[in-house]
Write a structure and sequence with these properties.
The protein is α/β, with parallel strands linked by helices. It has 15 helices and 19 strands.
């Protein structure tokens, strides 16, 4: 199975914690940008060994794509890939303020069958502090509307936010659970270098919940979601039966994927990684000469009938992983999942000495109950997931 990711970098405003590549909505030239994505897809889709099974349009805020462009855009993607059947999973990232009956109908007709909605919190004070535009009631209404159109919906929440308490986080979780959404991703706030939050914390102008409060919120995540029937299948992801993310799971299990757009990454399933520079202007200019779209062989309301020769072939930067880097990535990605790392698969890829070394380094955490070894699979316990970064840094 292979996967396709398309990055749409435009946002109405930048959230104060976010380090994903994005640009302001005011500079969005949708016709040009979507055409450029299609051109890159045309030039690179053969990097995948087969027609992708899953499509994920992320960002940024891809729910901002104008409705009059969305259907044609997806139709052209399918045409370029020669895809004649529905996507196994087609996820669109959305913000609550963009979710209404009209947009949902357009997305559904285009083939979207899963929404990933960024709630982050259902406390209005917390939403204001992190720079979100929606209110708690608007987010709940958006979830209810989306459920009328899509069989799979994921809601993102964040804990350890500024001003957040275990009590307010519990309320957020309980409200999300009450909507019976099928998938919940719960992330601890990460202070990424250079983000406004990181700068404010470093300058002692912003305080975060204590380590003790962090631990209480982590336990609330595991306990409340578990009691409600959500299975934890990855460090931060919980799903009801048949509701896990097929696309994201392919990342964690080493399947090939192709990422298009500025800042997007690709992987061939072996030792080759490719990354597009996070630079919108350079990305657009790479495919354009005098604002004319080059090398397009398809005709659509987006691209038109341009058919010129491109200046260059590749925008991406390529990296060939060493055997040691492949081994480390194998450990990092597989141990993210509840199924963990198959020692049989690990040995087939890296040899028996690598298995012995991994088990020797892991023995300390097996003895303390942070890792478990069962049926030739090594995986984190609940307590191990809580300190997974520390453990991983010790066993790589």
């Amino acid at each position: 199975m292979t996967a396709l990711y398309l990055h749409v970098p435009f946002c109405r405003s930048k959230c104060l914690y976010c380090d994903f590549y994005s640009a302001g909505l005011r500079i969005a030239d949708w016709e040009k940008y979507l055409a450029t994505i299609l051109l890159e897809l045309e030039n690179r889709h053969e990097e995948l060994p087969e027609v992708p099974s899953t499509l994920y349009i992320g960002g940024g805020t891809p729910s901002l794509i104008p409705p009059n462009f969305f259907n044609s855009f997806v139709s052209d993607i399918n045409s370029l890939l020669g895809k004649n059947k529905e996507w196994l999973e087609f996820t669109l990232e959305v913000n609550p303020e963009d979710v209404n009956a009209e947009n949902c109908e357009i997305w559904k007709v285009a083939g979207v069958n899963r929404l990933s909605m960024g709630l982050q919190s259902l406390n209005n004070s917390e939403l204001k502090k992190i720079g979100r535009r929606h209110s708690s009631s608007e987010a709940i209404e958006a979830l209810k509307t989306a459920k009328n159109y899509f069989p799979k919906i994921s809601a993102d929440v964040i804990f350890a936010l500024p001003g957040q308490s275990p009590e307010s986080y519990r309320e957020t979780l309980e409200k999300v659970i009450s909507t019976e959404v099928g998938h919940i991703s719960s992330y601890a706030l990460m202070l990424e270098p250079g983000t406004p939050f990181e700068v404010l914390v470093r300058r002692n102008r912003l305080s975060l919940p204590s380590e003790e409060e962090w631990g209480i919120m982590y336990d609330l995540t595991c306990n409340l979601l578990g009691q409600a029937g959500y299975e934890r299948y990855e460090i931060s992801n919980f799903a009801l039966p048949q509701q896990h993310s097929i696309h994201n799971y392919s990342y964690w299990t080493g399947k090939p994927y192709l990422g298009l757009g500025p800042g997007a990454h690709s992987y061939d399933g072996g030792s080759r990684r490719r990354s597009n520079p996070a630079d919108l202007k350079s990305y657009l200019n790479f495919f354009m000469v005098d604002d004319s779209i080059q090398n397009a062989r398809i005709s659509s309301p987006i691209i038109g009938n341009q058919n010129k020769k491109m200046k260059n072939k590749y925008f991406y930067i390529e990296e060939i992983l060493t055997d040691n880097e492949r081994r480390e990535e194998f450990i990092l990605t597989r141990l993210r999942t509840a199924k963990g790392l198959s020692l049989t698969e690990f040995e087939a890829s890296f040899g028996s000495l690598a298995v012995k070394s991994l088990l020797d380094l892991s023995s300390k955490y097996i003895n303390t109950g942070h890792l478990t070894l069962k049926d030739s699979n090594l995986f984190f316990t609940k307590e191990g997931f809580a300190i997974s970064d520390l453990i991983l840094s010790s066993i790589l």
